[in-house]
Amino acid sequence: MTDATPADVASLGYEEARDELVQVVSRLEQGAATLEESLALWERGEALARRCEEWLVGAKARLDAARAAAEES
After folding, report:
1. Residue 21 maps to which CATH number?
2. Distance (Å, rounded) from C-alpha 25 to C-alpha 18?
């Protein structure tokens, strides 16, 4: 996991956010983190999941627009 602050999540690309989210989930599943660390990981994971969803929603909107433009042609 990177040492980036939550504000830095907004600058991540989809693959970066997804890869870090996988790391966060893995660390949480190991169960070795303290309660405080687990909460921080959970919060980071939530932010990363939102960022991935933003990318996916944006990609879907672009595809829908391209399809609509193609149908009009």
Report:
1. 1.10.287
2. 11
CA distance linking residue 49 with residue 11, whole number of Å: 14
**The token pair that represents 8 in the structure block:** 């830095």
Local mean pLDDT, 10-residue blocks, the chain (73 residues): 67 96 97 96 97 97 96 90
Helix (H, G, I), strand (E, B) or coil at 66: helix
Residue 18 counted as domain residue? yes
Q: How far is CA 10 from CA 44, 49, 61, 63, in A?
A: 12, 11, 19, 22
At which residue do the structure tokens 């949480």 appear? 28
- Contact present, 55 and 13 (Cβ < 8 Å): yes
